[in-house]
Every structure is written in C-alpha cells, then in structure tokens.
C-alpha cells in the first residue's frame, strides 16, 4: 500500500504484528477502495489539474498534494466587504495540504456516490465529527474572530450542526437566493480545488432571524435571468466566505451557469470545484416536520 493509499484509506496492517488479518470489514474496505479507484469522479478529482495553489506558477493535482505533504502556507487574510455588512472573504485559510486532507475525507466517505449525485448533506453534531479539525483550524487562523464573525453566534454550542458537500463541474451554477430560514445566522462556505465567481444581489424578499423556519425563503429565479449582480466576489481555492447579519438575510448570492468567469479583463475557464457549507439549524427547525426539511435550490452552493 503506497503513501497515497494510506492517506486516503488508512493502513490494513494488523495492530498485533506485520501479518495482515483479513476480516469481513477488511474485505469490504478493499472492495470500496477498488470501486473508488475506477470511479471517474474520484479519478478526475485526484488527477486534476487544479489551480496553482502553491504559487509555483503551474497546475497541480490532489495526488501531488497528498504525496508531497510539505505545504506552502501564506498568511491568512480577512477582507470585509465595503458595501455588504456582514460579508467577509477569508483567503489563504486552507493550505494545499489542508485542502488535500479535506478532499481525502470527502472522497473516502464517497459522498458523491461514484458520480451519481453532486450533493451530500450531514445533519446533527455527531455527523460533523469528521470536520472538527476544520472548525478548530478556523479558530486558529482568525476566521471566527471579531469583527469578521460576531461572538453572538460564534460562541454557540454546537457552532455548526449541518453541512453540505457540493461537486461542481464547469458550467454548473446556482440561482440567486437567501439561505433557508431553518438556519441560524452565521454561514460559512469553503471553496476547494478551483476558483469561481460568486455574485451578490439585493434580496427581492429580504429575511430576518424571526422568519418561521418552514416559510418561503428564497426567490426562484433562473440563473442569468436579466438580473445583473451588484457585486462579484472571487472565491479562490482554500478560501472561506462568511455571511452574517445583513449579508445573510438581506442579500442574495448565486453562481452563474457558465464555462468561464471574467476576472478584471481576462476570461478564465472553470475547472472542477467542491464546496463545503457549514450552518447551524434553528431549534424550531427540527420540530416542523419533513416538509420543511426538503432539499431546495438554496441548499446548493
């Protein structure tokens, strides 16, 4: 078993010695490993190429990042948006190795079911144990510090109890929306593998923290429907964007369905992107029944 295999799937050696003891669980892990090796989604994610995350001027692959663990880590930066209160872009938060670690976890858990789905959700604090290191990392890098994120919600327990993993191919997008009322204030979106433009619009139907969790919570608009964004934020791989207060309730955010994004005067082709969204369910949202918990367009980031 090579170094990359150990990173993704763990060692199969017995704790009691060098002899390998094959159990039913071991066999199942081997089969899942073999399936992932032939999974085109797994292969495309592992082989890249992705954006130049280490600053050397060339593309890289997730395999390279895992195999060569020495990481270039730039100093994290926290940029509050000058026009949208509560919106902050945190760049250089996740290093190459951090992103590789998170992608290895997502791949190992097979969230995207060999390409049969592009989204997976986790509900409840117990289901987010695998992301504890990421939350600790956000504390260490200052992401959750005031004034970027208000202590009114960063001090809550648990901090997050719902996550969404999304797989984006070039051309994929999401309708402009305000996140569903079932979630509390304070939402984080982590970008992995490649960059993308996220657009912001004044909400057609602004929300408030007092809205009922089962109510209508976003405008159902077609992507690109004769509506120009007020602002566009470039989400680089390894960055986190946080939304609280007005940014969370009074502004819609969306991603256009296009194969390329305009950055200054340059058009940049999109690549595969994965995002992880972290949110906290309102207590009352757990009590409103299945109808209020159905997936909606606002759940895809």
Write a structural description:
The protein is of the alpha+beta class and 301 residues long. The protein has eight helices and 13 strands. A seven-stranded antiparallel sheet has the order 1-2-9-6-13-4-3. It has a four-stranded antiparallel sheet with strand order 5-10-7-8. It has a two-stranded antiparallel sheet with strand order 11-12. The radius of gyration is 20 Å and the shape is globular.
In short:
The chain is α+β, with helices and mostly antiparallel strands and 301 residues long.
Q: Mean pLDDT, rounded to whole units?
A: 77
Which secondary-structure class do the elements indicate?
A: alpha+beta
Low-confidence stretches: 1-38, 66-71, 217-224, 288-300
Specify the helix fraction band: 10-25%
Main sheet: strand order? 1-2-9-6-13-4-3
Distance between the termini: 35 Å
Major beta sheet, specifics?
7 strands, antiparallel
Order of helices and strands: HHHHEEHEHHEEEEEEHEEEE
Instruction: Report the count of strand segments.
Output: 13
List its salient traits.
disordered N terminus; 4-stranded antiparallel beta sheet; alpha+beta; disordered C terminus; 301 residues; globular; 7-stranded antiparallel beta sheet
Write the layout of secondary structure elements.
Elements: H1 3-9, H2 24-38, H3 40-47, H4 62-67, E1 77-80, E2 87-91, H5 96-108, E3 119-123, H6 132-140, H7 151-154, E4 162-168, E5 174-177, E6 187-192, E7 196-202, E8 231-235, E9 240-243, H8 246-249, E10 251-255, E11 260-263, E12 266-269, E13 273-279
Antiparallel strand pairs: 1-2, 2-9, 3-4, 4-13, 5-10, 6-9, 6-13, 7-8, 7-10, 11-12
């Amino acid at each position: 078993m090579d170094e990359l295999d150990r990173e993704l799937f763990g060692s199969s050696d017995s704790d009691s010695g060098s002899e390998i003891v094959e159990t039913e669980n071991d066999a199942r892990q081997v089969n899942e490993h073999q399936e992932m090796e032939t999974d085109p989604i797994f292969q495309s994610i592992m082989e890249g190429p992705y954006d130049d995350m280490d600053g050397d001027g060339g593309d890289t692959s997730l395999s390279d990042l895992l195999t060569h663990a020495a990481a270039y880590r730039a100093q994290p930066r926290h940029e509050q948006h000058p026009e949208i209160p509560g919106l902050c872009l945190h760049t250089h938060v996740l290093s190459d190795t951090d992103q590789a670690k998170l992608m290895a976890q997502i791949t190992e858990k097979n969230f995207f079911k060999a390409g049969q789905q592009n989204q997976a959700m986790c509900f409840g604090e117990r289901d987010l144990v695998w992301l504890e290191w990421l939350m600790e990392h956000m504390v260490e890098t200052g992401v959750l510090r005031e004034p970027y994120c208000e202590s009114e919600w960063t001090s809550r327990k648990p901090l997050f109890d719902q996550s969404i993993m999304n797989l984006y191919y070039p051309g994929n997008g999401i309708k402009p929306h305000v996140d569903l009322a079932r979630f509390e204030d304070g939402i984080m979106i982590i970008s992995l593998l490649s960059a993308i433009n996220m657009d912001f619009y004044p909400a057609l139907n602004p929300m408030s923290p007092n809205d009922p969790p089962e109510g209508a919570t976003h405008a159902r608009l077609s992507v690109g429907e004769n509506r120009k964004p007020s602002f566009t934020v470039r989400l680089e791989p390894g960055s986190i964007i946080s939304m609280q207060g007005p940014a969370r309730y009074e502004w819609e955010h969306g991603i256009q369905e296009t194969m390329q994004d305009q950055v200054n005067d340059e058009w940049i082709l999109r690549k595969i992107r994965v995002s992880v969204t972290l949110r906290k369910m309102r207590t009352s949202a757990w009590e409103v029944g299945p109808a209020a918990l159905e997936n909606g367009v606002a759940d895809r980031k």
